């Protein structure tokens, strides 16, 4: 693992909490409610005049770091860099969630296009990490 990249991710998480926390309801942090608030924030950004979903790399970095940290905290996961997908959160069941990809998709397509970071969080934390999506009879 590249320690410098992990430090960049952590700095982005801190920036998200510092900048978005005062705009959100009380209790903004690494939790489900904050992910839901950030989903709305993304939708508000998409509605702004002149928004260009192809010019959002900085926003993807900050919000993807925050989403990944929330998933890691909620599921007991940890950051992991894979050869095929880049940085993601390794979940207790061995699968990997890719928050940067999901944030970029929501910025591009929006909730109305089927992309939701809140749903991504719920599925990763409540189902995948717990083995809840396994076929009956699988161990």
Describe this protein's structure:
The protein is mainly alpha-helical. The protein has 5 helices and 3 strands. The chain has a 3-stranded antiparallel beta sheet, covered by helices on one side. Strand 2 and strand 3 form a beta hairpin. Helix 3 crosses helix 4.
Ends: how far apart? 30 Å
Supply Rg. 15 Å
Q: Profile the largest sheet.
A: 3 strands, antiparallel
| Overall average pLDDT | 92
Structural class, judged by helices and strands?
mainly alpha
Strand order of the largest sheet: 1-2-3
Beta strand %? 5-15%
Low-confidence stretches: none
Shape: globular
Q: Approximately how much helix is present in the residues?
A: 40-55%
Number of domains: 1
Number of helices: 5
What are the secondary-structure elements, in order, as H or E? HHHEEEHH
Q: How many strand units? A: 3
Task: Please summarize what this structure is.
54% of the residues lie in helices and 9% in strands. It has 5 helices and 3 strands, in the order αααβββαα. The chain has helices spanning 3-20, 32-46, 57-75, 99-109, 117-128; strands spanning 78-82, 86-90, 96-97.
Summarize the SSE layout with pairings.
Elements: H1 3-20, H2 32-46, H3 57-75, E1 78-82, E2 86-90, E3 96-97, H4 99-109, H5 117-128
Antiparallel strand pairs: 1-2, 2-3
Helix pairs in contact: 1-3, 2-4, 2-5, 3-4, 3-5
Structure characteristics:
about 55% helix, mainly alpha, three-stranded antiparallel beta sheet, about 140 residues
